């Protein structure tokens, strides 16, 4: 017996259950088409909603910044890693989103790990949507606060949990995903805000899949619901629609100032690189110049979903460009994904524990980078594989 035998057994178990993650290698820039493991395939997998990950203006901005400012920040933000580009990025993000202040982090994941433990601790309670993202859950656990889950997207359940629990704790926080990435549904933030306001509780939304997607010209979920100035913390990512890498907390200036003092990934992990910051700034320029890419994303999504429904697929409850294709059991979803890949379409199968047991699916990520001919090619492949496997 070796001390790692248990890991080998666990891995074998995952493989037998069809839950083992086979990680593909991308050999081309991000775009509508990718070279994956040597094969050119249509990209239905990435979060490159606006096609910015390889946009010429953004690439040029990153190159120029490297030529003048170098690559790495060589320090954490609070020691010597805050460069003029980081400060400019935070100012521009705050203006773009119409909030008092913004602070950036290395990723959306670290933004959550920074924010939640800075706002609540052992004597406090967090009301958390049952389907919140892993990084929210980890942030909640790190805080040491009592975590009370409420039913998914259910403000009534939230209020019930608040009335049952609030009085036993010092402070409270309500936290929800903005767009739920597995189903593509949107949190009823207007209703959740009403509840938070009635009980005077801090409200935090993680809008990773809404940043650059929802609201006017991609200004996010707070803009989508017209809740400017009412949501205390809006977490976003610069790693999805923005096409780069990074996280942001936008909102209340006092909270942003507090995160500069107490956000542990800000204090103890180095700042994002020069080209990252410059590329994010160029992404804001593009989004502020025109809503064309965001409009294209939504028209592509509408077209693809309508055609999938015509073919007889169940695309679930999505209200966003995220298009789940519900299949049931994980092995079927994996088989479907493999056959799509053989037909030249790269679309990911998602199974337990990413989604609940029996709710395995293929998730199609639509992008403004897709042309209608690309979407048509994808639809043909879905039709062929769906018939072959008896799904439609
Ligand atoms: C993707 C995602 C994150 C992580 O963002 P990164 O910038 O990739 O770390 C956080 N929260 C939610 C809801 C996400 O969907």
- Write down the domain tally: 2
> What integer is the average pLDDT?
97
Please estimate the helix content.
40-55%
> Main sheet, how many strands, which sense, barrel?
7 strands, mixed
Set down the secondary structure blueprint:
Blueprint: H1 5-16, E1 33-36, E2 39-43, H2 56-69, H3 77-81, H4 84-97, E3 101-105, H5 108-119, E4 125-129, H6 134-143, E5 146-150, H7 155-165, E6 172-177, H8 189-198, E7 202-206, H9 221-224, E8 233-237, E9 247-251, H10 253-262, H11 264-268, H12 274-289, H13 292-311, E10 322-328, H14 330-342, E11 345-346, E12 348-350, E13 360-365, H15 372-388
Parallel strand pairs: 2-11, 4-5, 4-6, 6-7, 7-8
Antiparallel strand pairs: 1-2, 3-9, 8-9, 10-13, 12-13
What does this structure look like?
The strands form three sheets. The protein has a seven-stranded mixed beta sheet with strand order 3-9-8-7-6-4-5, with helices on both faces. Strands 1-2-11 form a three-stranded mixed beta sheet. The protein folds into two domains: 18-49 and 291-388, Aspartate Aminotransferase, domain 1 (Alpha-Beta Complex), CATH 3.90.1150.10; 58-289, 3-Layer(aba) Sandwich (Aspartate Aminotransferase, domain 2), CATH 3.40.640. The protein has 392 residues and is an alpha/beta fold. It has helices at residues 5-16, 56-69, 77-81, 84-97, 108-119, 134-143, 155-165, 189-198, 221-224, 253-262, 264-268, 274-289, 292-311, 330-342, 372-388; strands at 33-36, 39-43, 101-105, 125-129, 146-150, 172-177, 202-206, 233-237, 247-251, 322-328, 345-346, 348-350, 360-365. Helices cover 44% and strands 16% of the residues. α2 packs antiparallel against α12, α5 packs parallel to α6 and α13 packs parallel to α15. β1 and β2 form a beta hairpin. The longest helix is centred in the last third of the chain and has 20 residues, at 292-311. The chain has 15 helices and 13 strands. 50% of the residues are buried.
